[in-house]
Amino acid sequence: MTIFLGQAETVLREGFIYSLMAMGVFITYKILDFPDLSVDGTFPLGACVTAALINGGINPWLALLLSFLAGSLAGSLTGVLHVRLRITDLLSGILVMTAMWSVNLIITGKSAILQFFNRPTIFTWGVIRLLPDGLYRHRYVVVTFLLALAVKLLLDWFLRTKQGLLLRSAGDNSQYVISLGKDPGTVKILGLALGNGCTALAGSVLAQVGENADVNSGKGMVVMALAAVIMGTSLFRRISFLRSTTMAVLGAVLYKACLQVALQLGLPPHYLKLLMALLLTAALLSQRLSGKKGEKSLA
Amino acid sequence: MKKQTLKKALTLALAIVMSVSLAACSGGAAAPSASAAPPETQPLKVGILQFAPHPSLDNCYTGIVQGLADAGYVDGDNISIDYQNGNGESETNNLIASNFVTGGYDIIIAIATPSAISAYAAAREAGIPVVFSAVSDPLGAGLAETLEAPNTGATGTSDSLNLEGQMQMIRAFLPDAESIGILYTTSEPNSISHLAAFEDLAPAYGFTVEAVGITDSSEVASGAAALAAKGVDCVNNFTDNNVVNNLSVLLNATDAAGIPVFGSEEEQVRNGCVASETLDYIALGVTTGQMAAGILDGGDVKTMAVSVVSDSKPVYSAANCEKFGITVPEAYANATNLDE
Question: Does one domain contain both B123 and B64?
């Protein structure tokens, strides 16, 4: 039973971490209708920036924030390539993803893995130490849950502001944005910045769990994030009181749970990617069968 | 209406599969804990995490199992070995390491640096000892404070290439060669440090080193072609995971240009290289297995010194040498011919 609980904790922890990225991809894919491949590069960007900063003595929470900003910068680059230079959405993402490979290696000083063992992380520094002993043992789940909750609430609030409305319209109906006197292109760049900022945030948190950053940790992230978002939004669509951001979070947790269950049932690890593809296909099919493919989920 | 029912059915099916799996999972986990009541002959759980399917690492694993058996720990008897391969992906490696830890394993053995780091990060807090194998730079990887007394919760074996021996061999096999080509992956720290050391040694043996750096497996072909175009007299391999994994691609380019390749390990010689001052990865594994056994016996992982292995032995392939018109020099007449 303890093994099951331990694994459940791992699933929750991983699910909450990846939900940060799922929420980011939710913005770019669902709201802006932009298939953003740059997340494969911005996820490890967050990790590498965090590792470099923490090794340099920067406070881990500040490192978290700076990773978000780094991701936003990369995301806005994707936006600029698409909006100003008129490169297609797919290619803009690919260009930034490719560039990030080098940038990440530059940040880590050419090594594939940069470790920061024994340095303060968000799980060991500051207010976390004040937790009572029982909670402290489960601090990974607690902190990642709180982070996911905070980001979710911030996003929900943002999407209800005027800027958020512009964002939702830019993907749906850019004429409306123009009629308001705003430039839909700028709004798209903002959306991409936000989405990739969240992705880099996820990478940062993951790095701080393992106390090391891996430049290869981004491979296949876009598939994972899309699977989480699509699974979440199609499975939980019926439950009307759930906001779309919550659905993205639940989708990420569910996705991680599927992988864990598969491994538990004895699936050899090299089949995992096939399983991921099957899960994503099943989620896409269930979405299409409901006949609601064209509808955007508005919070 | 049909679409609606189909969608509902799909959702329901997915939900059922999930619940059944979770139930089966928890049911499965409950059963062993019920039968755990008599504690005397519970086999110790040994988790072995290998970074990628790669002949040198496979040899390590073989050695580890043997080393454990030599010390009295036999799989299926007093230990149960869970051997997992991370397929070269960090996400999979982390997941497996995490499962070992939540599964309450008694010891984790990790083969190659990235797996060692994943295992160490996951096992640290739970206090599960980690024994690593084939990690070229344990200090740089943060796995040990000093080689004599790691003091971290991890210890193991470190493989260090005998670069000077390799260079002597190249000089002996190719007395007239002037340049050695190196293909390496820029994100592998072992390759960077080996390259630097190699370049330092080269002048003493009358060689210049031409290095071409690549970043991943898709660039091996173009990197090899670039080396061939530089007109190097031979090529030498380090323990670069990317290059060794794609050896056949490298050999394609060098064979076509008539350039012999010296390998870093005997498997590479079997697969087309002419010769090598090889580390014996099976022996490395055996030492690792014995260290792991020492810890299972009750040894302290914090004070068990890291074992650095650099003994090499020369091996060659007569057939491959002949392909390039190389005669095996007298000094290496007693070296092992892998063709036999």
Answer: yes
Residues A200 and A190 sit within 8 Å (Cβ to Cβ): no
**Token code pair at residue B208:** 């210049």
- What percent of chain A shows pLDDT beyond 90? 47
Residue where the block lists tokens 């297995």: B289
Q: Give the three-class secondary structure for B276.
A: strand
Across B76-103, average pLDDT: 88
The answer to the question of residue B7 being in a domain is no
Q: Report if residue B213 sits inside a domain.
A: yes
Choose the closest CB to B94 out of A4, A111, A210: A210
Q: pLDDT digits over B217-258, tens only?
A: 888 999 999 998 999 999 999 988 788 888 989 999 999 999
Residue B322 included in any domain: no
Take residue A232 and report the two structure tokens written for it: 């979440």
The residues spanned by each domain of chain A are: 2-289
Same-domain pairing of B203 and B306: no
Size of interface A-B (CB pairs under 8 A): 120
ipTM of the complex as predicted: 0.73
* Closest CA–CA distance from residue B138 to any residue of chain A (Å): 12
Decide if domain A2-289 falls under CATH 1.10.3470: yes
| Residue of A6, A10, A105 lying closest to B186 (CB–CB) | A105
Q: Quick one: which H or E segment has residue B97?
A: helix B90-102
Same domain, B80 and B169: no
Alpha-carbon gap, residue B292 to B290, rounded angstroms: 5
Q: Considering the entire predicted model, what is its pTM?
A: 0.78
Containing domain of residue B295, as a range? 44-160+281-312
Nearest to A269 among B86, B118, B215 (CB): B86
Instruction: Tell me the CA distances in angstroms from B69 to B63, B75, B83, one per residue in order.
Output: 10, 8, 15
Residues B154 and B87 in one domain: yes
Which one-letter amino acid corresponds to residue B316?
Y
From chain A, the residues in CB contact with B117 under 8 A are: 113, 115, 210, 212
* Same domain assignment for residues B48 and B156: yes
**Whole-angstrom distance, CA of residue B28 vs CA of residue A155:** 40
In this structure, what is the dihedral angle of CA atoms A20, A22, A26, A275, given to the nearest 10 degrees? 180
Average pLDDT, chain A: 88
Query: What does B293-331 look like in DSSP terms, one character per residue?
Result: HHHHTT--TTTSPPEEE--EEEEE-HHHHHHTTPPPPGG
